[in-house]
Amino acid sequence: MPKTEKPKILVVNDDANSLFALTSLLTQWAEQESYEVLAARSGQEALRQVLMHDFAVILLDVNMPGMDGFETAEAIHQRARSADIPIIFITAFLADELDRLKAYQRGAVDFLFTPVIPQILYAKISVFVALATKNEELKKQARQLSQRTTELTATNARLTREIEERQSAQRQNHAKDEFLAMLGHELRNPLSAISSAASLIGLPGVSAEGVARAKKIIQRQSQHLGRIVDDLLDLSRAMSGKILLNRAPLDLAALVAASLETYRATGRSADYQLVHDLDQGWVDGDATRLEQITSNLIDNALKYTPAGGRIEVRTWTENDDVVLSVRDTGVGIAADLLPHVFDVFVQGSSTLDRSQGGLGIGLSLVRRLAELHGGAIAAESKGPGGGSTFTLRLPRIEHQPVAPPAPAEPVSAHGMPSILLIEDNDDGREMMTMMLSCYGYEVHAAADGNEGVAAAASRQPDVALIDIGLPGIDGYEVARRLRADPATRDIRLIALTGYGLAEDLRRVLDAGFDRHLVKPVDIDQLADVIGGCVPQTVKQ
What we know:
Layout: E1 8-12, H1 16-33, E2 36-40, H2 43-52, E3 57-61, H3 69-78, E4 87-91, H4 97-105, E5 108-113, H5 118-202, H6 208-239, E6 248-251, H7 252-266, E7 273-278, E8 282-285, H8 287-303, E9 310-318, E10 321-328, H9 362-372, E11 376-381, E12 388-395, E13 418-422, H10 426-438, E14 442-446, H11 449-459, E15 463-466, H12 475-484, E16 492-497, H13 502-511, E17 515-518, H14 523-533
Parallel strand pairs: 1-2, 1-3, 3-4, 4-5, 7-9, 13-14, 13-15, 15-16, 16-17
Antiparallel strand pairs: 6-8, 9-10, 10-12, 11-12
Helix pairs in contact: 1-5, 2-3, 5-6, 6-9, 7-8, 8-9, 11-12
């Protein structure tokens, strides 16, 4: 801690003998009273000293050539930092009342007459030194108090921040625990149905109708599991910015109309009054992702609206936006939940026996997809029982008609392409082989990468369906080897894999694949892709 400076006394006198006498007199008490003595021979020199030091008191001679004592005092007190320095005037003449008034107007606190009586000088000086010392102590205490206050404020802010972070972490952990419980529940339901249906098919005496119904249950519940996995992967990709949008001009009204027709055709909206008012509005967007937004909003309305309720779907243009609105007459959203409906894992009900079901990530995905399109999503509700409205806004573009695509060349009728399936999962390989065979394809299978490369060289298939995660050498290396061999470089290569991020697509294409499909793949979609890869050149 730095040592506190001693108070300083300035003696100003143009007479050298008088200056020496006063400074000598003051110096003899300096050690006892703990102060320092400085001297000046003129008013100008006194002002320079005042610029450099703080003084407890100034002893100022009245009669000086050039700048006299009154002018010096006035100049000292015009400066803010020295305005409060006490000044004692010293004069050899008996001051009358006018002189005293003039001195006090210039900031004097007292007068001393020469010859100075040492005892009186000592008494007066001691008072001002003591006041300066006390004032410095008070300033020091004020600085310490201010520093302590700053430290306490910082500590309080840190504690407040730590408490908020701890509470936030606790809320997030609680939300994750609830989500994991919901995920287990949502996965077990379809798995249980699939397991029961598969067991039913193998029971003796089961009717053909029962087998058919079991197959439909397996298909429907498998699709449901696929949607759960897709939602989880899409949300993860969206939150990490790894979704790659395939943008193109499209009419949002036409896209929404197609989605609504799917709901009606599948009977999913049969128990509701599903009405629409769709005005044309063009946006630059990814049709698949915008359909995903639309489906999630309509699914949300169906989920939280009792049977017989009304759901209104509208699109219109408003200034520079194309707007989609989905309004329902359902259970509504509580005021405390409304600001959080787009947060991850948030649901109106978190109990496992809730009738709505779902993972609580659909609206989070909607918001992220909207933001990726440069748009925004908002929710409104009058509260429980008051229904809810979700409004999507996307940047509007001017529609520029494009020439219709040239008609696709027909698939050759010379025969079906031969296929090599390279898949290490035994069940998956067997089922895919059986399904492709049912479609009339000639299928050969291999269980690992090296076996697949050998089979491709010996059998020369038209198309190779290659899994990426293979034992031995992975699918990327299989593709590279097939492209490097003149005997197999013309085989059409389709990556059939569970890896679906944007960088996975890039790696697949860089390795030499023609197409990239993410499991599970619908057999009709796979047949279309195979046909697109080899529309004409087919073995006899």
